[in-house]
Design a protein that fits this description.
InterPro entries: Na/Ala_symport (IPR001463)
Largest sheet: 2 strands, antiparallel
Protein name: Sodium:alanine symporter family protein
Number of strands: 2
GO molecular function, one term: amino acid:sodium symporter activity
Keywords: Cell membrane, Membrane, Symport, Transmembrane, Transmembrane helix, Transport
Number of helices: 22
Radius of gyration: 21 Å
Strand content: under 5%
Number of domains: 1
Order of helices and strands: HHHHHHHEEHHHHHHHHHHHHHHH
Pfam families: Na_Ala_symp
Shape: globular
């Protein structure tokens, strides 16, 4: 068994190195060019159509508001990757990795936009009035490849079991370290809280995430902004660290072992893609349920998801870690996961540790709530409503098993399972890029949409 796990880890490490990062980067560049660099040409317009319209009645049909769809999608992406993953990128790729994280975020916007546009374009309205969509629907209806949709749906449904276990373990470890509570008790309590939300469907999930996500982001980013204001003199230093080390190898500094240029780019790209999940095909499942009058308008909300997740929250973490200097302490590379906690602790004392732990707890709970919804939708697509309801209990049980570190052996297969989802989704998005371009051109040249909006 150990030999099998070694092979799995070797294959996973190789696959999630140059092959998949190159695939995502090339796809992002291709779609950015194909769609006329829209994310660079219309940023102010997109902001007005998203956050600038939150108090207006949504246009068109759907199950949840566009904001609720975004906060649901963000719930699944904003989490441990933003708090734990960013310092890992700094420790293994150096401060320059943050520059490449920003670059892949800007490029990845075209992938996330395309996924969400296709999800709305090929969504379906169920008998209960709920709108559903995502890769399995645009593969089936857009590409006429139901087998590919079945592949995606089954792979995602299964992949979420170890994924939820890992999330359950992360939150129980954080609670145990900060509040000394039993991991089993934490797992049971988290499962009960999650069950109250997921059994209410996407409408209840949307209402909960609409409140939780802005609050948790406000407190976490707000604390980072306070640190920024307290240390404005550190801003030039941090920016210099990031930009001066983005294009050349970096020498060792204290506990930082140094990094070659290839590692700097790889870690930056990997962290950006892991945090916002562009290309994975999960966020479109949430965006498909949104009230909208055109698929492209909801695509703008998907782009805003990357702005919040990677450009704001990950950057906030990076500033706190780099300005505090904890990344250069002896032994930092051996415990990169705790660097964010140490950085906040450096500035705020024990209150900083509590802030990071509580943020992580809320991030993980909201993540689990939404990815259970994703898994249930895959089960419904494959086997019907009853199987979807049964999978809720499987996923809730996974939280408890994961909280006590159970079934760790299957966690090793997580990266391979993610690749089994990502590859077919990227293929589908590329094959349907003509449809994305057609819809984008339709939106920006029609008197019903863009031209009408800018005349107001």
């Amino acid at each position: 068994m150990n030999q099998i796990l070694e092979v799995v880890n070797s294959v996973s490490s190789w696959l999630w190195g140059l092959p998949l990062i190159s695939l995502l980067a090339v796809t992002g560049i291709y779609l950015t060019v194909r769609l006329g660099f829209f994310q660079f040409r219309y940023p102010i317009y997109m902001f007005k159509q998203t956050f600038g319209s939150v108090f207006k009645k949504p246009k068109g049909e759907g199950t949840v508001t566009p904001l609720q769809a975004l906060t649901s999608a963000l719930s699944a992406t904003v989490g441990a990757a933003n708090i734990v993953g960013v310092p890992a990128a700094i420790m293994f790729g150096g401060p320059g990795a943050i520059f490449w994280m920003w670059i892949i975020a800007l490029i990845g916007m075209s992938i996330k936009f395309s996924e969400s546009v296709l999800a709305v374009r090929f969504r379906e309205k169920k008998e209960n009035g709920e709108y559903v969509g995502g890769p399995m629907y645009y593969m089936t209806k857009g590409l006429k490849m139901k087998w590919l949709g079945v592949w995606f749906a089954f792979a995602l449904m299964i992949e979420l079991i170890p994924s939820i276990m890992v999330q359950g373990n992360a939150v129980s470890a954080a609670v145990n370290e900060t509040f000394q509570l039993s991991p089993l008790l934490t797992g049971i309590v988290i499962a009960l809280i999650v069950s109250l939300i997921v059994f209410g469907g996407i409408k209840r999930i949307g209402k909960v995430t609409e409140v939780i996500v802005p609050i948790m982001a406000f407190f976490y980013v707000g604390a980072a902004v306070i640190i920024l204001l307290m240390n404005l003199d550190q801003v030039p230093y941090v920016l210099n660290l990031i930009f001066s080390n983005a294009f050349s190898s970096m020498a060792p500094v204290g506990g930082f072992a140094g990094a070659a240029i290839g590692e700097i780019i790889r870690w930056g790209f990997a962290r950006g893609l892991y945090s916002n999940e562009a290309g994975l095909g999960t966020a479109p499942i949430a965006h498909a349920a949104a009230q909208t009058d055109h698929p492209v308008r909801q695509g703008f909300w998907a782009v805003m998801g990357i702005v919040i997740d990677t450009l704001i929250i990950c950057t906030a973490t990076a500033f706190v870690v780099l300005s505090s200097g904890v990344w250069t302490r002896e032994g930092a590379i051996d415990n990169s996961a705790s660097l964010t906690t140490e950085a906040f602790n450096y500035y705020f004392g024990s209150i900083g540790s509590y802030l990071v732990s509580i943020s992580l707890i809320f991030f993980v709970i909201s993540t689990v709530v939404v990815i259970i919804f994703y898994g249930v939708k895959q089960a419904e697509f494959l086997f019907g409503h009853k199987t979807g309801e049964m999978m809720k209990f499987v996923y809730l049980g996974s939280i408890i098993i994961g909280s006590i570190g159970g079934a760790k052996i299957i966690w090793q297969f997580l990266d391979l399972a993610l690749a089994a989802i990502l590859i077919p989704n990227i293929i589908a998005v590329l094959l349907l890029s003509n449809e994305v371009k057609r819809l984008k051109d339709e939106f920006f040249t029609s008197d019903q949409y863009y031209l009408k909006d800018i005349k107001k």
